[in-house]
Design goal:
Elements lengths: L2 H7 L13 H11 L11 E7 H17 L19 H14 L8 H8 L10 E8 L4 H20 L3 E5 L6 H8 L5 E10 L15 H4 L6
Antiparallel strand pairs: 1-2, 2-4, 3-4
């Protein structure tokens, strides 16, 4: 798979089979992903990969909290501005319409949307997950570096025939994740990433993108 094909076929998959992901594949992907760029080569990412019983434990703990109606953990960073301006709010709304529309859930059915969203904390059935942390003392440029690392991981997973879904949702249950991975106290959970093989009957959808002319400006001589 060449790079263009990997980019074109990468999407956020939200239904996985239970087929195990071989440890050697994950090690191969992450050994290559460390070559992702970072300012002054700080390499500010800290990743924890869970499979088997440890991952099931995290899922069960999160599921129990959902069932009990426990509130989300105190946020460690702002996922979105309180008031998204145009065109970002429109893009977010369009994503929601497509995401839940593909599941046959109307906008007014808030309860059904919440049930669908709760699948985040089961990693959409994926047999492997990566939880990515960043040192809380670092700044926005280093968070950007973490994003480049995550993108590199996702493209390499495609080269291995795997799919993924990055999930900031896990930051809402960062205490639950910490009970299993035991991260150093100076780290903040940025996101989780579900990893596995896509379910054949998942009915994949891919959110559209703005035309290049809306996000890119060519300044020619």
């Amino acid at each position: 798979m060449d790079v263009y094909e990997a980019v074109a076929s990468r999407r956020s998959v939200r239904r996985f089979t239970d087929r195990p992901v071989p440890r050697e594949v994950l090690e191969r992907v992450l050994s290559a992903a460390v070559w992702a760029p970072s300012g002054s080569n700080l390499q500010p990412w800290h990743a924890f990969v869970l499979t088997g019983e440890p991952l099931e434990s995290v899922k069960k703990r999160a599921g129990a909290r959902l069932a009990a109606g426990d509130p989300w953990d105190e946020p460690e960073y702002e996922q979105y501005p309180a008031h998204l301006k145009s065109p970002y709010q429109e893009r977010r709304s369009a994503f929601g319409e497509q995401r839940y529309g593909s599941l046959g859930i109307p906008r007014a059915d808030v309860e059904a949307r919440q049930r669908a969203a709760s699948a985040n904390w089961d990693c959409f059935g994926a047999p492997a997950a990566m939880f990515c942390y960043v040192d809380r003392d670092l700044g926005r440029p280093q968070w950007s570096d973490v994003g480049m690392f995550l993108q590199t991981v996702m493209l390499l997973l495609r080269a291995e025939g795997l799919h993924s879904c990055t999930q900031m949702a896990w930051a809402k249950f960062h205490r639950t994740v910490a009970e299993t991975v035991l991260p150093p106290r100076d780290l903040t959970l940025f996101c989780g990433m579900s990893i596995g093989y896509e379910c054949p009957d998942a009915h994949p959808t891919r959110t559209g993108r703005a035309p290049v002319r809306e996000t890119v400006t060519f300044v020619d001589c």
